[in-house]
């Protein structure tokens, strides 16, 4: 036995330097957790509604005619999560579905201070809402550029699952640009395997630099529990919505007047381009901003303001969430040749 132990020690000593554990290996993310968790809050909502399911029983004339007593009110309570993104102004990002039915919203910070929150605005299409609280010594999380997120990035998900209180889980980015799930009108989700459960909605998805990259929104849960497929709204989308909600109280959607579809290999061949991804223009409305800018059917939009466009959904999201009146520079491939076109965003019809 002694000879075996000695042999093992000699083998370890003979390993090349590259095969040995470096002294700087991180064995804990506790410092990161301590830095970001004060900005993640618990949200409790109270909603009061009539107890009766039959709408006739809510009608005062009907109750009076049949001499029915006044219907009692039913109070419901729910819990979710939120993230302070502007400590100076007290702005909190969360999900629309967390607060949409609320008559009262209370926000509790990690140090157990509770504030009555004001609903600044909410947007059902992106499932984003903005709250405002008034308090001193608040902490916020800096917002990252979610366009730089890559599959394989390590992340932390922080929230209030099942109303248990603040909980931190870890994982990685499993996919980006997820859409077509039917969860929201504007979808461009970051997918993660960090555990997200009911109550985590509105919580933070944070990278290992301590930056906010997304707002946790939904899970794929065929059995009712977490199976490692969670979705977060990218912070770039949430930030764009927040800016409009703070300024206007609602989101003014933009449009340029085009119909688009994903670029496929077959379609690329027909359009005479070797591009592998982008948004192909299939129709341009006469007299629209796109028509005035010179866009034509068959063009492939490759980038918006220098940011790559990978799909039709991505282009639709960027245009729809751009402030009305803004100008966008589109990088366009036309039959294999690239050119830049500037288009002005106009207001879309209210949804």
At CATH level 3, the topology of the largest domain is: Thrombin, subunit H
Mean pLDDT: 84
Report the major sheet.
7 strands, antiparallel
Please identify the top-level CATH class of the largest domain: Mainly Beta
Summarize it.
This protein has eight helices and 21 strands. By secondary structure, the protein is an alpha+beta fold.
Describe the structure.
A seven-stranded antiparallel beta sheet has the order 5-4-1-2-3-7-6. The chain has a six-stranded antiparallel β-barrel with strand order 8-9-10-13-12-11. It is built from eight helices and 21 strands. The relative contact order is 0.11. The longest helix is centred in the last third of the chain and has 14 residues. A hairpin with a 4-residue loop joins strand 11 and strand 12. Helix content is 19%, strand content 36%. It has 351 residues and is of the alpha+beta class. The chain has three domains: 93 residues, Beta Barrel (Thrombin, subunit H); 98 residues, Thrombin, subunit H; 94 residues, Pdz3 Domain.
Which terms would index this structure?
six-stranded antiparallel barrel, disordered N terminus, Thrombin, subunit H, 351 residues, alpha+beta, 8 helices
